[in-house]
Amino acid sequence: MREDLSVPPTLERLRRHLVGLRMPRALEMLDHMMRQIERGEVGALEALEALLAEELTLRESRRIKAALQMARLGTIKTLSAFDFAFQPSLDRHRILALAQLDFITRHEVVHLLGPPGTGKSHLAIALGVEAVRAGHSVYFATLADIVASLGRAEREGSLRERIRFLCRASLLIVDEIGYLPISSGSGNLFFQLVNARYERGAMILTSNRGFAEWGEVFGDPVVATALLDRLLHHAVVVSIEGSSYRLRQHADLVPESLRPAAATLAQAPPRRRGRPPKPRGADPSNG
């Protein structure tokens, strides 16, 4: 193919450089920026900065998209889309403070507690999205999915590798604690994961059950106490009281008897003196 003699050699070489550097957005914008330079609308340095900014924006968008897919967040939720006015018990400033993500660098656990439909999962996912945008690795799953994967890994002899995988993310979000019953064996597997992440990685947990009910949730009060011993040591507890966030536009259709009553969900069971006994299978060196 004959080279277009009307194109300055320097411009043609610049195009080839952009192709070689895999900068498609900058290549796409090059002719437009050259015309702006020729008309005196921008200087050469301004044009260069604009090209690089366009390319950086594209790459950041691709990074975020890929990271959100790896995080398995499902339907993307944002804090800007959350109706704080509908949940007056929720301190908006406290949630926005969490969105600064200091709890991730401090390896803390955020508990979002409240009746079904009050926006716990929305807030957890939204904080996960903020973490992804800030460059943190995130992984999202329901408790049922996590214990199922841990149980499968245990049967296949790969439990240690699965726990190691779930410890890679800077932020692990565990949704729907208390919605489905968990056997004591599954509770013990979850404890091993929590123990592995303790003071090493941040977590967000959502639950419709108060801490005092976790013995019932996990099928064993000893396992529940051991979990809470670690999950409440470096913790932020956010309790949400009120009606279903998802049904807010149809609240008049929900029978009064089915509307959740306000309750204190953050009540923890009495702490025993000293550290609780280790659940079966726990590594005593990780206490």
CATH superfamily of the largest domain: P-loop containing nucleotide triphosphate hydrolases
The CATH C-level class name of the largest domain: Alpha Beta
SS-based structural class? alpha/beta
Q: Any guess at the CATH architecture of the largest domain?
A: 3-Layer(aba) Sandwich
Q: How many strands, which pairing sense, and closed or not: the largest β-sheet? A: 5 strands, parallel
- The number of helical runs is 11
Count of strand segments:
5
Helix-strand layout with pairing:
Blueprint: H1 9-20, H2 24-38, H3 44-71, H4 92-98, H5 102-105, E1 109-113, H6 120-133, E2 138-142, H7 143-156, H8 159-166, E3 171-177, H9 184-197, E4 202-207, H10 214-217, H11 221-231, E5 235-239
Parallel strand pairs: 1-4, 1-5, 2-3, 3-4
Helix pairs in contact: 2-3, 3-6, 7-8, 7-9, 9-11
Characterize the structure shown:
- The chain has helices spanning 9-20, 24-38, 44-71, 92-98, 102-105, 120-133, 143-156, 159-166, 184-197, 214-217, 221-231, and strands at residues 109-113, 138-142, 171-177, 202-207, 235-239.
- The protein is elongated.
- A five-stranded parallel β-sheet has the order 2-3-4-1-5.
- By secondary structure, it is of the alpha/beta class.
- It has two domains: 9-67, no CATH class; 79-246, P-loop containing nucleotide triphosphate hydrolases (Rossmann fold).
- The chain is 46% helix and 10% strand.
- One of its GO terms (molecular function) is ATP binding.
- Residues 263-287 are annotated as: Disordered.
- It holds the Pfam family IstB_IS21.
